[in-house]
Amino acid sequence: MQTIKNDYFTADINEHGAQLTHLINRSESFDYIWNNDLWPKHAPILFPAIGRSNDDAYLVAGQKYEMPQHGFAGDADFEVVDKTTDQVSLLLVANEATKAYYPFVFKLRVTFSLSETGLAVHFNVKNDGVEDLSYSLGYHPAFNVPINGEGAFDDYRLAIQPVNHQLETYEIVKKPNPYRSGNIEVLPNYANGVVKLDHQMFEKGLLIIKSTGIKSVKLYSETDTSHSVTVDVSDFEHVTLWTKEGANAPFLCIEPFNGLPDVYGDLVELGEKEGNHHTSAGLTSSYSVKVDLK
Question: Which of 44, 57, 120, 122 has the greatest CB tally within 10 Å of its CB?
Fold first, then answer.
């Protein structure tokens, strides 16, 4: 476990999956990040896949490769390559285990850095191969709701910027695993830039907001707490909202996605997967998620 800190926050990052496990407000001694066996994860990294692929697999030039839900990075051991008091960088390099799922040469570097306003998570995807690198990248942090135990889940709101008249989501179907159906639905409980949270809105599962140029999502309560969490998602094309369905769980995941689960059906060629990003040979693509905390 790696610990970084400053005068305002402490963060713990597990080398297994480069997963943020705690993000502590030092002045009031509470954790913004979910920790409970009801959902035994905290903030997994999704790479090089997001969600389910048909038959948990995909094709490269017609050859079938298996791919776990959300890829393999979340279950891989990262190497710590740089560390200071308030920053740490971890690296996953392609190896024989990754090539069984994903026959490409890459480096995924993740850097966590604290400031007086919160936490930044920076991702570098480097293509060390000689062909196009096609991949999805997502971040899946789960925040405690209520924050610091103040209020109840239904007291909280999400302010989504910029304000849209209407936001759309991809309909999810369970086969029994969740896939996109190919249809579009309206984001529930949304009006004038604000989502009123309740557990019922998640009864069908995750809500993937269709690309609309969203810049930030703020989790807050108007009446019960002065604390808030604002996630800057401007480097990402989709934002997913999720909590464990049917559990009245006191957490909410705010997930920036560059990539999508498959529409239910046939296997897909990796280079043609909808929503995937592409990095050319020898180049590096960079993405950041900034989490402002109060």
Answer: 44
